[in-house]
Amino acid sequence: MNSNPLKIFSGTSNQGLAVEIANYLGTNLSPVEIKRFKDAEISVKLNDNVRSSDVFIIQSTCNPANDNIMELLLMIDAALRASASRITAVIPYFGYARQDRKVEPRVPISAKVVSNIIQRTGADRVLTMDLHADQIQGFFDIPVDNLYASPIAIDYLKSLDLEDVVVVSPDAGGVDRARFLAKKLDTGLAIIDKRRPEANISAVMHVIGDVKDKNCILIDDIVDTGGSISKAAIALKEKGAKEVYCLFSHAVLSDNARDNLVKADFKEIIFTNSIPLKEDKSLDNMKVLSIAPLFGEAIRRIHNGESVSSLFI
Q: Annotated active-site positions, please?
């Protein structure tokens, strides 16, 4: 049992989720003052004593990614300089995760750069969810717990009582994720064969697997512009799919994502609140699943020195 006080702080990126996590833990968020000067510099002050405390800082590094990363770094440094016993960066959505390797000459590995900055600023541990690339855990030299939203998603999907279900991966890279869900739901598996000529542009080629008269669940980790997953849904409908459900973890939903999702005519669009949903991106057929219990339980176990392995189903 950890005798050091538990203190939870939140940046401005996803305060709604942070409040839910604190409520799950039966506590309140510790006060923090975050201001922006007229030249856009960020000022942070932790308005709570953190000396010898076990500090958790909740901050999704979503849009505006650079501002949110800077807030996180300044809060980490503030806690470090105030003699916190341990500092855990809780990052429900890890920005820059898609830039995890060199795909052409003279480009950075941006996910590695962000990882370096976080740990060198003073974080002792990172708690995140559904990293776009699992190898990002290896970019850190501190413990990283990469949770999965699948337990929450599986419970919700089972509650729908769907029949003739097929789980579909929108590309070859997501087959492992789709196979895991199909196994848990005891359903069939299909794959969309596509080619991406350039970033955010995809061309669906054909469907591998039987989807005719099936309820299809398209699963991905991130939906950005929605182009890929929407084209995949259209391809499934052309192959005779009955209804198409869309399931993903991180609702980036940039640019014309809303229009693309409307065109796809999904039965339901299911995702988590790792990124707050903006009102202008909302649709009537969207279902937002809260990950607060998942993160709250992980924080409780980390604080108490208990195993979190059972959360990785």
A: 194
